[in-house]
Design goal:
Layout (H helix, E strand, L loop, with lengths): L1 H16 L8 H20 L2 H7 E10 L6 E5 H9 L9 E10 L2 E10 L4 E12 L2 E12 L13 H19 L3 H7 E11 L3 E6 H9 L8 E11 L2 E10 L4 E12 L2 E13 L7
Parallel strand pairs: 1-6, 7-12
Antiparallel strand pairs: 1-2, 3-4, 4-5, 5-6, 7-8, 9-10, 10-11, 11-12
Helix pairs in contact: 1-2, 2-3, 3-4, 5-6
Length: 285
């Protein structure tokens, strides 16, 4: 079964992101596909053993609760327990990899799982980090689309929402350049989590307030940097954006994969997964 599902993942990758340039080698792409395959197998088979091969133990899930319209979050350990329940319904689902992007030790995957039995679709924006030699999902932000009415999909995002997403990202980047803590907090959801790899401590997770406090406490004035919004992907009330920031003083490029959620009428950043590469300059920045 694993071989067949892995072939499906590879086929989807070739169809959906063929021709896209990656900065990492083929071994990283294959390793990420294996991680996604573990996730998909776990959902189909109802096995947390497979799921543990895909998710980091500190991974978290975020989504908007359908009833309250508010942010809901849970640790991956709760998902393990949910999958292992005797009442978990096991049946074949279909997986499509809509987009895959890799930058050093960070990556993003957009996937859709189709529930043919009831017409539902689960849109996942998955952020991954390469911890040691293993790629693991560190964040999952999701939107479940129910059966479309009158043949119209209900996951599409309006042009107004896209503009709001881009405005939030601009506020985050420009406030960071000025070390403006209030501006950064306005762009980040109060429950936002930042994930990155530290050369000494390994995986680090920070709350919004801890991250902003540490960032604005650094000595010096405004940063000299340029940025590029490489892409925005959105479905329903969730989105993910890739932002590349070049620090001229440090001659380094920071790649941020930013996951956003729409709570009420506002889009806020709920997750940030990053990769920094020194002595790297991206054309156009």
């Amino acid at each position: 079964m694993r071989k067949n599902l892995f072939s499906l993942c590879c086929t989807a990758l070739l169809l959906c992101v063929g021709g896209q340039a990656f900065s990492t080698g083929p071994e990283d792409k294959q390793a990420i596909l294996r991680t996604l395959n573990y996730y998909f197998e776990a959902v189909n088979m109802g096995s947390s053993a497979e799921l543990r091969q895909a998710y980091h133990p500190q991974a978290t899930f975020a989504f908007i609760d359908k009833q309250s319209g508010k942010l809901s979050q849970m640790p991956v350990s709760d998902f393990f327990a949910l999958i292992d329940r005797d009442s978990y319904i096991k049946y074949e689902r279909r997986l499509e990899i809509k987009q895959l992007d890799i930058s050093g030790t960070a990556a993003f995957a957009e996937t859709v799982i189709y529930y043919d039995r009831n017409g539902k679709e689960l849109h996942d924006f998955l952020s991954l980090l390469k911890v040691g030699e293993q790629w693991r999902i560190i964040s999952r932000v999701s939107y479940k689309q129910h059966a479309a009415f009158y043949g119209q999909p209900n996951w599409e995002v309006s042009a107004v929402d896209v503009e709001k997403i881009e405005k939030t990202i601009r506020q985050y980047v420009k406030s960071g350049s000025k070390r403006d803590g209030a501006g950064m907090k306005a762009a980040l959801h109060p429950e936002a989590i930042m994930a990155y790899l530290d050369d000494i401590q390994g995986l680090r997770l920070q709350s919004r307030d801890a991250y902003v406090a540490g960032y604005t406490a650094k000595e010096g004035g405004a940063f000299k940097r340029r940025y590029r919004l490489s892409f925005v992907r959105a479905a329903g009330n969730v989105a993910l954006a890739k932002v590349e920031i070049y620090f001229r003083d440090y001659k380094a490029t920071l790649t941020d994969y930013l996951s956003l959620i729409k709570e009420g009428d506002e889009w806020k950043i709920i997750r940030k997964v990053s990769n920094k590469e020194r002595m790297k300059y991206i054309s156009g920045l």
